[in-house]
Design brief:
alpha+beta, 6-stranded antiparallel sheet, 7-stranded mixed sheet
């Protein structure tokens, strides 16, 4: 007989079914009620708990030198705050217990403010009354109180975060931060005006390559949604950000440093107001160095030189005698003169249509009769202006068209914001056949570098074309665009003009420019180690009011040339602006050119090892203690005998520790097995090996000095304390 009693069980099942049905109808009813009557209320609640379309900023790309060194990169910076409405402040006992140690720690990290001042500031924030939007009432405790008013780097942020109380979870301690992307230049102000700068707070570029390539460097922002779940915000990616690409420039950090130091030294010596130096690679047009220095300060004792304006591409002025090369190149190319043509310069003063034209030595009797080549060697104003006026005076348009043809007037279309193309007037006639913008004196003075406005970048590009056998290259500042280690855009060298003049005219001018340095006014720019070619320039320039006769004479001193002259590799221009005499393009700008040229060429010297041999020198090197596997590999590569071959490596995690003893015919390497329980002896090791070895034993290492280890704070053989700090003194 079945034990199941249908009469007793079925009523119970019916009761449960009825109750579940009632609950189901209640749930459905409540849901309907929320969807209709309470819809507006819950919509507002949901809007407070989520934020849609939050912009996620990408990482800005780096700017690199030609050999891959960082010249500008983005690093995080932090502003730190306190939220005095966090849970830890509901009961102030913990804060009151820790506040003194917190302030002492802050004083240690930021020594310019005392612990008492930190405490006073933090207590002010804790007691400040603020309006609570939720309750509509005043509440004690600021939610964003500055702990430190300035941005701090990551290391400082981590130090602060490890202080007592601050090391608790954010929602409890109230310690919070705001992250900013800061643009960092590892080489400081080196090529600052060309690399560019950023408005840090706005994350926007405002000059240089940073601005010109901003869209490439910036990347594409992403979008994420934020939803509050269990009292925490959860990010829901909608579109991931795309980081910016890296820009590889043509600038060589070492050459830039050489040029900057040479220019600043001369500016300080002559009390110059402004200086420019540009170093250009002949075959490619690559700008290897570009320096723009301006004098800062209100008195001589406070003068400093810094990059404030990119004058190399934007400072248009009358170039002076460096322009004479363009004038004579036009004449040589047109065939109106050759190097044997003799010019009668007389006693150094000649009347040019009612105005006296003077040579720089007019008070010493002038140069007399000289040929075209000697005219440029001594930079005779009379010689150049006489030739141009004689052969182009009745047709000045032909001369100006010749200047356009040889490229001195070329718009270089540089990628940098601020570039100003040259201004060289073209003669213009009215309906009656009379010149409207021209006078009889315009041509003679234009031929020697006046009545024109040309930036240094155009002058050096023109001289570079002469060095390059007539081929004019566009100045190149960026070599390529790189993304994730792969080149996405290659910026090839660009030819502006295949030939600026006839080959014979170019060869003649190259020879003349070599003679300017070897036997003319450009001697100080030369070098005994290699031939140099170039031209000096000394021009009087207008003051800030546009006047030449204000009682104070300002000079624009320049030297432009190329080296080595027999096989040109680099073209360089140096310009200095100064007030008063003495003023010499060759004696001042030429000296800077000399230092730059020798500094750059020294990097290309290749010496034979045999030439450096000294029987008293030590042929067997001094080998440090440490990883003898690495030492053995290096010694073998140098062809130095060792007593064994060791096969350990860092990469495989099995270095072989030992000592080294130098002998007459080689190095003896001895293996040492460190103990597992005692501190190893790292005396005599390099910092890399010593740190690696000690950290494998669980010790933290601090370094003082440089060289090899002379002393270790934890004596060798003492018991190892995991997490202990061992300070190494290096010499």
């Amino acid at each position: 007989m079945s034990k199941f009693d249908n009469k007793k069980v079925m009523p119970r099942y019916m009761l449960i079914a009825v109750m579940l049905t009632i609950v189901g109808f209640a749930v459905i009813g409540k849901a309907f009620y929320i969807m209709t009557a309470k819809k507006q209320y819950w919509t507002e609640v949901a809007s407070r708990l989520k934020r849609d379309s939050v912009v996620v900023n990408p990482n800005r790309g780096n700017i690199l030198s030609s050999d891959g060194q960082l010249m500008a990169s983005s690093i995080p910076e932090y502003k730190i705050f306190m939220d005095f409405q966090a849970s830890a402040f509901e009961d102030d006992s913990l804060w009151l217990d820790k506040v003194d140690s917190v302030c002492e720690g802050l004083h240690r990290i930021f020594p310019t403010r005392s612990a008492a001042e930190f405490k006073e500031s933090l207590e002010e924030g804790r007691h400040k009354m603020v309006y609570d939007k939720k309750t509509g009432q005043q509440k004690m405790g600021s939610r964003w109180w500055n702990i430190w008013p300035k941005r701090i780097n990551y290391n400082t942020y981590m130090e602060v975060k490890q202080l007592p109380f601050f090391n608790m979870p954010k929602n409890k301690s109230g310690f919070t931060e705001e992250v900013f992307n800061s643009r960092n230049r590892p080489f400081g102000s080196l090529a600052k005006r060309t690399i560019g700068g950023m408005f840090g707070a706005k994350d926007s570029a405002y000059f240089g390559i940073e601005l010109s390539y901003d869209s490439i460097l910036r990347g594409t922002p992403g979008i994420t949604g934020r939803r509050k779940v269990l009292n925490k915000y959860m990010n829901i990616p909608v579109m991931l950000p795309v980081d910016g690409a890296d820009v590889v420039t043509t600038i060589d950090v070492n050459m830039q440093d050489i040029a900057e130091r040479a220019l600043i030294d001369e500016l300080k010596l002559v009390n110059g107001e402004m200086g420019v130096a540009i170093l250009m690679e002949v075959k490619t047009g690559d700008i290897k160095a570009i320096v723009n220095m301006m004098r800062m300060g209100d008195s001589p004792e406070n003068y400093q030189y810094a990059e404030a304006v990119n004058s190399a591409i934007s400072y248009r002025c009358e170039p002076g005698s460096v322009f004479k090369v363009a004038s004579f190149l036009v004449a040589l190319d047109d065939g109106v003169v050759d190097t044997s043509y003799v010019i009668h310069t007389g006693s150094g003063v000649m009347d040019m249509h009612g105005r006296p034209m003077k040579d720089h030595n007019w008070n010493r009797g002038g140069y007399g009769d000289i040929n075209v080549a000697r005219t440029l060697e001594v930079s005779s104003n009379i010689g150049v202006s006489h030739v141009i006026d004689k052969f182009y005076g009745k047709n000045p348009e032909r001369y100006v068209k010749g200047l356009y043809r040889v490229g001195i007037h070329e718009d270089l279309q540089l990628p940098l914001v601020g570039y100003l193309p040259p201004r060289i007037r073209m003669p213009r006639k009215n309906k009656r056949g009379q010149y409207e913008n021209w006078s009889k004196t315009a041509l003679p003075w234009m031929s020697i570098g006046y009545e024109t406005q040309i930036a240094p970048i155009n002058t050096v590009t023109f001289y570079n074309a002469i060095a390059n056998n007539g081929k004019m290259m566009r100045p190149r500042f960026v070599k390529r665009i790189v993304k994730n280690g792969e080149t996405i855009v290659e910026c090839e060298p660009q030819v502006i003009k295949e030939r600026i003049a006839k080959p014979q005219a170019i060869k003649t001018m190259q020879t003349i420019l070599r003679h300017v340095v070897s036997q003319g006014l450009g001697r100080k720019a030369g070098s005994p180690l290699f031939p140099v070619a170039g031209k000096t320039g000394t021009a009087q320039v207008a003051d800030q009011h546009g006047s030449y006769h204000s009682g104070v004479t300002r000079y624009w001193l320049s030297f432009c040339g190329f080296f080595p002259a027999d096989d040109p590799r680099y073209t360089c221009i140096v310009c200095i602006k100064k007030t008063g005499l003495p003023a010499s393009g060759g004696g001042m700008s030429g000296v800077v050119f000399h230092h730059i040229a020798e500094g750059v060429m020294a990097r290309h010297l290749k010496m034979r090892v045999e030439d450096a041999y000294d029987e008293r020198s030590i042929i067997i090197p001094d080998v440090k203690q440490g990883n003898i596997a690495a030492a053995s590999q290096v010694l073998s590569g140098l062809g130095i005998k060792t007593n064994n071959h060791w096969g350990g490596s860092y990469a495989n995690g099995n270095p072989i520790w030992g000592s080294a003893e130098r002998q007459k015919d080689g190095v003896v390497l001895s293996k040492i097995k460190p103990s597992d329980t005692t501190v190893p002896n790292v005396t005599g090791m390099g910092a890399k090996d010593a740190v690696y070895l000690l950290e494998t034993y669980g010790l933290h290492v601090k370094l003082q000095g440089r060289g090899k280890v002379k002393h270790q704070s934890m004596p060798a053989g003492s018991a190892i304390v995991k997490g202990g700090v061992c300070t190494l003194t290096l010499e």
